[in-house]
Amino acid sequence: MRQDTESPPTEMATDEAYADEAYEHFKHELHGMFRSIRKGHSAPPLRLGDLTPAESEVVMAISHAEAHGMEVRPGLLAHMASTTPSALSQTLKALEQKGHVVRTRLGTDSRGVVLDLTESGRALAGEGERMRDSYFRSLFAFLGKEDAGELLRIMGRVASFVTENRKEK
Hints:
Layout: H1 9-38, H2 53-67, H3 74-80, H4 85-97, E1 101-106, E2 109-117, H5 119-168
Antiparallel strand pairs: 1-2
Helix pairs in contact: 2-4, 2-5
């Protein structure tokens, strides 16, 4: 007498269809989340004082770089603020005109500049930090300690997977 360890064909087909549907849903949702995170939307855009969201993002990026002892140059800043050098140039002009950023030329090379926040720029960055902290505190309270920990555990695994796959290519 033969013993089957496999499911009947109709049950297997149903399981496969469910798995395909679940996979497609997973792929679609995760791709959307990664796209949103990549574009810097892990938190809502800030509007600091009289600044646009793009200007606010640049002020926050300069503040972050300064806090970590980095020399803030336009190339680094464009990367940190997830913007193009051209768009950054226009944003920096506006921030200079509003008195929140200053450019300092490096030596005799007129193209080399370092960016610094003025006192008013630092005040706006402080406001931005408080707003972001409030947002993440609300998220933590919404999730609760257990779910927040689970989110970090899973995102850590995802980050590890992504890092490992980058090394292979």
